[in-house]
What we know:
Elements: H1 4-20, E1 30-36, E2 39-42, E3 58-60, E4 66-68, H2 77-86, E5 92-96, H3 99-107, H4 117-122, E6 128-129, H5 137-143, E7 152-155, E8 159-164, H6 167-190, H7 198-218
Parallel strand pairs: 6-7
Antiparallel strand pairs: 1-2, 1-5, 2-3, 3-4, 5-8, 7-8
Amino acid sequence: MTSERTHRKDILRFGKMIHERGFIAATDGNLSVRLGRNRILTTPTAMCKGMMQSSDLVVCDLDGNRISGRRNVSSEIAMHLLIYRLRPDVNAVVHAHPPTATGYAAAGLPLSQPLLSEVIICLGNIPLAEYATPGTLELSQALEPLVPGNDAILMSNHGVVTYGEDLHVAYMRMETVEHFARIALVTHLLGQQKLLTDQDVEKLQSVRAKYVTALNHGHNNGGRERSSRQRPPAKTY
Length: 237
Ligand SMILES: [Zn+2]
């Protein structure tokens, strides 16, 4: 089982990566890891996520109350807690504002076009949640119907949230979303999109089902193995 010390190191490492890659600016974004049934390790509010030390991180419970740490918990922790509650298979959440994907979210466009085979295999659909003020119950309500069947969600006029069985997977999903958004934007600049057919998408979804199973068996998820009952099949386009 991964130690808390390793989880802390991972949060510092991936916080630095989302900052260096321009997925966040200033004190934007937040990362968290599930340490136990009612313990979440998370980044603090009002601090650059690329310049943190282990002592800056905060441990809170599933209601967002601070258990340890000297800094304050971000109000955006609410979206992380919602995801942990709805998805027992998820052990890490990354929230950022990567410019291209957030541009789609601000334009009111989901990233749901079947354009790239790899994205359908790795991520499935990337829906767009309705706008709600960050840190409010309304935002949680907007996300709630989308959390069970997706691993990455665009939030209107705000940013992106991705999650997975560990922080590495959650971070990689954030990279995939932004990379896909850039490619989708290029197709708009070129003036045409050659979408995959329904038949192509169906084949890719059956590959995705195998990929998700392999991913679950390839990761130490602390015994919280994803069951098919916990998660509906990948969305159709
Ligand atoms: Zn945000």
